[in-house]
UniProtKB/TrEMBL annotation:
Domain of life: Eukaryota
F1F0-ATP synthase subunit delta C-terminal domain span: 118-156
Keyword match Transit peptide: yes
Naturally occurring in which organism (per UniProt): Pichia sorbitophila (strain ATCC MYA-4447 / BCRC 22081 / CBS 7064 / NBRC 10061 / NRRL Y-12695) (Hybrid yeast)
UniProt GO molecular function: proton-transporting ATP synthase activity, rotational mechanism
Name under which the protein is recorded: ATP synthase subunit delta, mitochondrial
One Pfam family named in its UniProt record: ATP-synt_DE_N
InterPro entries: ATP_synth_F1_dsu/esu, ATP_synth_F1_dsu/esu_N, ATPD_C_fung, ATPsynth_dsu/esu_N
């Protein structure tokens, strides 16, 4: 009886340690991008080749079959590469990007603008103003100015 129980446990342990593969990973479909802002939806499950995301952990290139992740966006350039190789760029000030099983990428951004919509001289002027406020003795004013500076300096890097 003891041998029988030992064989049963041994078989169960062997089958539990066998390598198995995820069925989702075998999918070879295109990456489906959804990009939403509080006031507008820019993409709804559009098939794209790649999306380059500015995350707080560094820039991240997302292709089809990417592992599921959730990333907080930092101010920077969001780059969308279509199936034909055309590139579309947006400056985002923050948000969340989530890669889900089934090749779905959902990005919720606070705001998104094309880089060419910004005037570089106006951005430089806003940076100078924010730098003055960042030196304020009022902690709240200084903290708000530092957040503004982070966004404006990222914007200065992509403004045309």
């Amino acid at each position: 009886m003891f041998r029988q129980a030992l064989r049963q446990v041994s078989r169960q342990a062997t089958s539990a340690t066998r390598r198995t593969y995820a069925t989702e990973a075998a999918s070879s479909g295109a990456l489906k991008l959804s990009l939403a802002l509080p006031h507008q939806t820019l993409y709804t499950e559009n098939e794209v080749e790649q999306v380059n995301v500015p995350s707080i952990n560094g820039d991240l290139g997302i292709l089809a079959n990417h592992i599921p992740i959730v990333e907080q966006l930092r101010p920077g350039l969001l780059e969308i590469i279509s199936k034909g190789g055309q590139t579309e760029q947006y400056f985002v000030s923050g948000g969340i990007a989530a890669v889900q099983p089934g090749n779905k990428l959902t990005i919720s951004a606070i705001e998104a603008f094309k880089p060419e919509q910004f005037d570089l001289e106006a951005v430089k002027s806003l940076i100078a103003d924010a730098q003055k406020r960042a030196a304020s003795s009022d902690e709240v004013v200084a903290a708000e100015a530092n957040i503004e500076l982070e966004v404006l300096e990222a914007l200065q890097g992509v403004a045309k």
